[in-house]
TrEMBL record:
Protein name (Swiss-Prot/TrEMBL): Uncharacterized conserved protein
Pfam families in UniProt: Zn_protease (PF05618)
Organism (species): Ectothiorhodospira mobilis
UniProt KW Kinase keyword: no
Domain annotation Retropepsin-like aspartic endopeptidase: ranges: 30-161
Top-level division of the source organism's lineage: Bacteria
SUPFAM superfamilies reported for this sequence: Acid proteases
Residues making up the signal peptide according to the UniProt record: 1-21
Length: 169
């Protein structure tokens, strides 16, 4: 009589099957290419473009002033009040790094990067944003792939699919 080696091997490997199965799918939020976003903790509602072609997010920042606080480099800047574009709101953040951006013209631009909490599609996440004057552009905030990765899918034919409300942390 032959030993049923394949059958025994199969029985031994059977308990491992769940571990080898595909991991559960992540919950992805489907949003439009333009969405309302809340900048926290200031709770400012800003219209933003979700740009899968950009790596880093960028925020319209006017009147930038770099200063030192407790031995760290900080920046003060103004953003346009979404309710009244003639009014500016002054924000201050610690600079986490600088990024070198290649512009469409081919020249390079060095921008400060700060961390902000963004509420998008019901999810609040901390995100690095580069600061730049975007007043000539249609949107004060451009959300790049780094913020969307693993959480957001963009429907390029839709706008305003999500909510700019997040649960309190």
């Amino acid at each position: 009589m032959r030993f049923p080696f394949p059958a025994v091997l199969l029985l031994l490997l059977l308990p491992l099957a769940p571990a080898m199965a595909d991991p559960p799918a992540r919950e992805m939020h489907i949003l439009g290419w333009v969405e309302w976003i809340r900048l926290m903790p200031e709770d400012l509602r800003i219209k933003a473009k979700l740009d899968t072609g950009a790596t880093t997010s960028s925020l319209n920042a006017l009147n930038q002033e770099i200063f030192e606080r407790d031995g760290e480099e900080w920046i003060a800047f103004d953003i346009l009040d979404p309710e009244d574009e003639d009014r500016h709101i002054r924000l201050e953040r610690e600079i986490t790094r600088y990024v070198r951006i290649v512009r469409h013209s081919g020249d390079h631009q060095r921008r400060p990067v700060v961390e902000v909490d963004l509420c998008l599609g019901g999810v609040q996440r901390r995100e690095e944003v580069s600061l730049v004057d975007r007043t000539e552009l249609n949107y004060q905030l451009l959300v790049g792939r780094n913020h969307m990765e693993g959480a957001i899918l963009v429907d390029p034919g839709e706008t305003f699919l999500g909510e700019a409300r997040c649960p309190s942390p």
